[in-house]
UniProtKB/TrEMBL annotation:
InterPro entries: AA9 (IPR049892), AA9_LPMO (IPR005103)
Domain notes from UniProt: Has a modular structure: an endo-beta-1,4-glucanase catalytic module at the N-terminus, a linker rich in serines and threonines, and a C-terminal carbohydrate-binding module (CBM).
Native organism: Westerdykella ornata
Comp. bias regions, Polar residues: 419-429
Keyword ATP-binding applies: no
Main localization, broad class: secreted
UniProt KW keywords: Carbohydrate metabolism, Cellulose degradation, Disulfide bond, Polysaccharide degradation, Secreted, Signal
Region Disordered, annotated ranges: 367-452
Protein name: AA9 family lytic polysaccharide monooxygenase
Length: 487
C-alpha cells in the first residue's frame, strides 16, 4: 500500500521524530496559561519524552515524571464545559507544531475524582475514561492525525451532570510507531481542576493507572505498518458508564460544593506557570527603597527557579519591574512603588478550539433515572467536525502597565517580546531543534524532509543554553545587590 510505504520511510528514523508534551488547558476556548494548574515533567531537556514500554508499570504513567506532586493552582471548570488539551513539540512555543506526523495512534481522556487536586498523588485506582478515539477507517486517520491537523488541540465536551468537586484530568496520546519493537509511547500529564456542578453522576467502575494496560497487550504491540490499522482495538477500559452516586458505594460520595484550594492568590500581579509575584512593600526612604528592590529580586529568584519547560516570559516581566525599582533607588526617588498594584500578567487569549471530538461508538452513557441528563453527543459521524462554541464574551484586557507614568523609570515589555536588559539576548528556547531521548539509538538517515515537516535532531545544547540564561540573570541580580550594599 502507498500509505504503508510512507510509514516505512518514517519508521527508518524513529529517534529523529519530534515528541510532544501536554502544556496548556483551555476551558471553553479560554487559555488558563502556560503550565498553570499543570502537573508535567519539569525538566526542559526531557519534558517531551514519552513514558515508554519499559515504564508502563511505573507510577509515572499516571501524571508523568514527578506528577505525584501537585502544583499550587487548580482551574475552575463549569459543568459540561469544553476542555481543550494543547500538545506542543516545543513546550514554550506553540508555533513550532504539536507532534511529528509519524507518531500514529489513539487518544483518550481520563478523570479521577479526588478530595484534593493538589495533594492527591494521582497514581492508583479511581480513574475513569470519558473519551477515546482510535483509527478512523473512513478518513484513514488516527486520532493523533486529527490532533495535529487541529493545531495540537484535543478538545472534548465533559459529560454533563458529573459530581462536583476536585478532579485530575488526564489526556493521553499513544504513539504506535515503535510498538512493533516493544516500545509503545505514552504522552500524558494531568491538569488539576475543580468542577462546578450540582450533578451527582459518578462512574460505575474505575481502573488503576498504572495497571490499566500491560506491555503484553495486543494493542501495545500492534504493528501499524504490516496490519490493517482498522483492526486496532483501543486500550484501557471502555468509556465509563455513569450513574447516580446514591446507588454507588459511599467511596464515591465526596462531592465538594465550593472551591477552597488552588485559586489565584490574592495580591498576585504577575504569573509564570504556577508562580505568582506580589507587590513590594511601600517605601519612603533610601533604605526602604533598596529593601523593596531586594524583595522584588527575591521574588524574581523564586520565579526563575520554579520556571518549567513552558518558559519564563513572566519572570522576564517581573525582572523588568525589579530593574525599574532599582533605577528609582539609584535616582533618589524614594517614594513608591510606582504603579502600585498594576497587574503585569498578559490577558489570557481566547481561541476557536476547532474540531471537538466525539467518542467512537457513542458518548458517555448515563444510567436511567439519574438526577442529571446524559452527556451531549456530537451529531452524525463521530469523526465529523463539530463547531466549537465561542465564549459569549472575551475577558477584558488587563490594565496596560506604563512605567513611564510619573515614575521617570522603566516600561513594561510586551508578552510576545519580553524585555531583556542584562540576560542572554538569544535564549536557548528560541533556537535549535526539539529535544529527543538520550537513550535512543542514533537516527538512521531517512528521506528528505517534506515542506512543513521539519527534520529534528538531538539537541542537548537547549538545556545548557537555558542554564546560562538563568545564570546571567543571577549574576546581574548579585551585582545589583552588591551595588546596593556599597551605597
Amino acid at each position: 500500500m502507498r500509505t504503508q510505504s510512507i510509514f516505512f520511510a518514517l519508521a527508518a528514523a524513529p529517534a529523529a521524530l519530534a515528541h510532544t508534551a501536554f502544556t496548556n488547558l483551555f476551558v471553553d476556548g479560554l487559555d488558563t496559561g502556560d503550565g498553570v494548574a499543570m502537573r508535567m515533567r519539569m525538566d526542559p531537556e526531557t519534558a517531551t519524552f514519552p513514558i515508554g514500554g519499559d515504564k508502563l508499570g511505573s507510577n509515572d504513567l499516571a501524571c508523568n515524571v514527578g506528577g505525584d506532586k501537585g502544583v499550587s493552582r487548580v482551574q475552575s471548570v463549569r459543568d459540561g464545559a469544553t476542555l481543550s488539551f494543547q500538545f506542543r513539540s516545543w513546550p514554550n512555543d506553540a508555533s513550532r507544531g504539536s507532534m511529528d506526523p509519524g507518531h500514529k495512534g489513539p487518544c483518550a481522556v481520563y478523570l479521577k475524582k479526588v478530595d484534593s487536586a493538589i495533594n492527591d498523588p494521582g497514581h492508583g485506582d479511581g480513574w475513569f475514561k470519558v473519551f477515546h478515539a482510535g483509527y478512523d477507517g473512513a478518513s484513514g486517520q488516527w486520532c493523533s492525525d486529527k490532533l495535529i491537523a487541529n493545531n495540537g488541540y484535543l478538545s472534548i465536551v465533559l459529560p454533563k451532570g458529573l459530581q462536583g468537586g476536585y478532579y485530575l484530568a488526564r489526556p493521553e496520546l499513544l504513539a504506535l510507531h515503535n510498538a512493533n519493537t516493544g516500545d509503545p509511547q505514552f504522552y500524558t500529564s494531568c491538569a488539576q481542576i475543580f468542577l462546578q456542578s450540582d450533578g451527582d453522576l459518578v462512574p460505575e467502575s474505575t481502573v488503576s493507572i498504572p495497571g490499566y494496560v500491560q506491555l503484553s497487550d495486543e494493542n501495545m504491540t500492534f504493528d501499524i505498518y504490516n496490519r490493517p490499522n482498522s483492526e486496532y482495538k483501543l486500550p484501557g477500559p471502555p468509556v465509563a458508564k455513569l450513574t447516580s452516586a446514591a446507588g454507588v458505594n459511599g467511596a464515591f460520595v465526596n462531592r465538594q460544593t465550593s472551591q477552597t484550594e488552588g485559586q489565584r492568590p490574592a495580591g498576585c500581579i504577575c504569573e509564570n506557570g504556577n508562580w505568582c509575584g506580589k507587590e513590594v512593600p511601600d517605601y519612603n526612604s533610601e533604605s526602604s527603597c533598596w529593601a523593596s528592590a531586594e524583595n522584588c529580586w527575591k521574588q524574581a529568584d523564586d520565579c526563575w527557579n520554579s520556571a518549567g519547560p513552558t518558559g519564563n516570559a513572566g519572570c522576564q516581566l517581573w525582572q523588568s519591574k525589579c530593574e525599574g525599582l532599582q533605577a528609582e533607588c539609584r535616582a533618589g526617588r524614594f517614594n513608591g512603588p510606582p504603579n502600585k498594584g498594576r497587574d503585569l500578567t498578559p490577558p489570557k487569549k481566547t481561541i476557536d478550539v476547532g474540531l471537538v471530538l466525539g467518542n467512537e461508538g457513542g458518548g458517555v452513557v448515563a444510567a436511567p433515572n439519574t438526577a442529571a441528563a446524559p452527556a451531549p453527543k456530537p451529531s452524525g459521524d463521530v469523526n465529523q467536525q463539530q463547531p466549537a462554541s465561542t465564549p459569549a464574551s472575551t475577558p477584558a484586557a488587563a490594565p496596560t502597565l506604563d512605567f513611564n507614568e510619573n515614575v521617570g523609570g522603566y516600561e513594561s515589555p510586551t508578552a510576545d517580546a519580553p524585555k531583556q536588559t542584562s540576560v542572554d539576548k538569544n535564549p536557548s528556547y528560541e533556537q535549535g531543534p526539539a529535544p529527543t531521548e538520550d537513550a535512543g539509538p542514533a537516527p538512521t538517515q531517512g528521506p528528505p524532509c517534506r515542506p512543513g515537516h521539519p527534520c529534528v535532531t538531538v539537541t542537548h545544547t537547549v538545556v545548557k543554553t537555558e542554564v546560562v540564561y538563568v545564570t546571567a540573570y543571577a549574576q546581574q541580580r548579585r551585582a545589583a545587590g552588591f551595588h546596593h550594599r556599597r551605597r
